[in-house]
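Notes, Module 5: Reading structure tokens.

Key idea: the token line is not a picture. It is a compressed description, and you learn to read it the same way you learned to read a sequence, by spotting repeated patterns. We will look at two proteins. The first is printed below with its tokens.
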Amino acid sequence: MNFCSVAISTAFIVTLVAVLVLALLPVPELQEFGFDIGFENDRVNHASAFATLAALGALGWPRRIVTLVIFLALVGAAIEVLQGTTLIDRDLDMFDWVADCIGIAGGLVVALCVNWVMRRKG
């Protein structure tokens, strides 16, 4: 792996951890820590988070796209299930998972465009 691949892979892991923390902390704890980031529309938050993860993942592991898509879709579903538990006490909303999947598709398009640009330059 070259430096760029390592940096992108590391960015993916850091972003994944941040998404999980933001998605799985109960709202009062988020507010207590001063986290108020994102868009007013929660589905836009979901789509943008998973688009970022998909783009970074596809750029970091270009030969593992199918595995990446399955992994991210399962992570999105798990987040929704966990948000519906009394421990986290947030909303279980399957449309948020749909937004995750739309974000994954968008992130893959971004990665495809970046790869195309980089090949043309190269």
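Here is the second protein, with the sequence above and the tokens below, as before.
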Amino acid sequence: MEILAFGVQADEKPLLEKAFAGRHEVRCLDVFLTEDTAPIAAGHEAISTSVNADLNARVLRILSGGGTRFIAQRSTGFNNIDLGVAQQLGLTVARVSHYSPYSVAEFAWTLAMAVNRRIVRAAIRTRDFDFRLDGLMGRDLHGRTVGVLGTGRIGEAFTRIAHGFGMDLLGWDVHENAACVELGMKYVDKEQLLAESDVVSLHVPLTPATRHLLDAAALRSMKDEAILVNSSRGGLIDTEALVGELRAGRFTGVGLDVYEAEAGLFFLDKSLEVVDDDTLARLMTFPNVLVTSHQAYYTLDAVGQIIDTTVQNVLDYAAGRRSENVLVPAAVVQEGDD
């Protein structure tokens, strides 16, 4: 069986080909799955997609009409897939239920430290042999308070790093994580967490209940000098409201590895084009904002685990086996906590 893999990054391709070698053939495409590219999958029983694929109802119907029966998504999140329609069409959909939480947790702290210590501004200056310190003053994290929204695998890893910094720990989640409590985390409601935290980091899935978890009111309740980090899903933050707060001169720094309208932008080279997303363009103008390209997961360790699980998902499908990674058929499960 030949698997057609969409949205494969250059670094990812040799790893994917090596993992499938001797098992099934894999054809890697750098284009993402959309309504325009879905017809390419005709004749392929199994395909693999990336996190930025658009698996809406129309795309799924095109795939089904072309003979596709199995979709292996190379990510944990699946808010980009219409699971109800997939089930109606008789498609089997699997994801990667978990991978190295350290990749995302460490990158979240990289963003926090970068905006706190003005690393990007300093690097640009020193390349021009400007070694002044004006405007580069940061703050010690030791003794300050971090608020972790979502304390699953990634949130716990993020918390362990915060504990190493010697920070006070506040958490918010549907269920308390005993490991975080053991580290000294105090669980509070979202309002208290936002009001008291010097650093706020998001580690929850994107669901209808969490969309714009940080809306205008929530953002206003944060400290003026707070640092905000989002390495989970862009839709957790009302970006328009965030721009308004930044325009008012608030926040020490904002680190965003995700953006709610990133589909069609992230993972692509748009450097020679006019990007007509005014909100993103406005975000880029603030000197205290750092935007990266959804790369928090992108380590050799994490990508290797994602690929290994994807291969196993294909093998399970071919053998008629089910695993915790299968989203449909049968009951649609709730999205994982990271």
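Summary for the second protein:
- The longest strand covers residues 145-149.
- The CA atoms of residues 88 and 119 lie 50 Å apart.
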